[in-house]
Amino acid sequence: MAARLSGGGGEHRLVSLPLSRIRVIMKSSPEVSSINQDALFLTAKATELFVQYLASYSYKHGRGKEKNALTYSDLSHTAEECETFQFLADILPKKILASKYLKMLEKEKRDGEVGEGEEEDEEEDDEDEAVGEDVGS
To answer: What is the spatial distance between Cα 128 and Cα 117, in angstroms, rounded to a whole number?
Structure first.
């Protein structure tokens, strides 16, 4: 298997991620019928390098140095602030308290109701104008 290299000091893995899991994820795509072993290995290695880069960048630019630890908030901050990682913003959202989330939902609901009422008024105005045009003809 390409994921292992036998050496003098024992077995060393070239990738840390389980290839069987990556194969399952790759096969979940309807366009993929078979997976070359080299493609599987390269996907695993690229994923591993990406995760390492994300973690090290988040650690260096977050509060990880202060605490000597990488936290979820460091990762979410990186996803939100760094242009390279912005595609992860939906996957790594900032944590908020449930009470704040409920307040946000209530506000959106209230704003949505107000917006719908304005739209209904505009539709009624349009109908009144159309009726007025028919009467005047």
So the answer is: 17
Give, for all 137 residues of the chain, the pLDDT tens digit: 455 544 444 345 788 899 999 999 999 999 988 899 999 999 999 999 999 999 999 998 888 777 788 888 889 989 988 898 989 988 888 888 888 888 888 888 888 776 555 555 554 454 444 444 444 44
Rounded distance between C-alpha atoms, residue 114 and residue 111, angstroms: 5
Which letter does DSSP use for residue 10 in this model? Answer: E
Query: Which residues are CB-contacts of 16 (< 8 A; sequence separation ≥ 6)?
Result: 48
Dist CA 31 CA 10 (whole Å): 39
Question: Helix H segments across the chain?
Answer: 19-27, 37-61, 64-67, 72-81, 98-136
Sequence spans of domains, the chain: 96-137
pTM beyond 0.70: no
